[in-house]
Design brief:
The protein is mainly β. It is 0% helix and 23% strand. The structure holds iron/sulfur cluster.
Length: 57
Amino acid sequence: MSCNCNNANKSIECTVTNCRNHCDSANYCSLERILVGTHEANPTMDQCTDCKSFQMK
Ligand code: SF4
């Protein structure tokens, strides 16, 4: 199921089009809020961070 782009959250830009919560036609998340975390013990760069609200389409 794809997201409803009427809910684009302009405060959360996102380019992960593979996520169910992504607004396909614009680079925004449709959620009211997201959780960002890390998979590293000692994160040092942006690649170390993850959107924990990601859901596969
Ligand atoms: S849940 Fe995370 S990865 Fe998915 S669209 Fe929103 S910000 Fe992007």
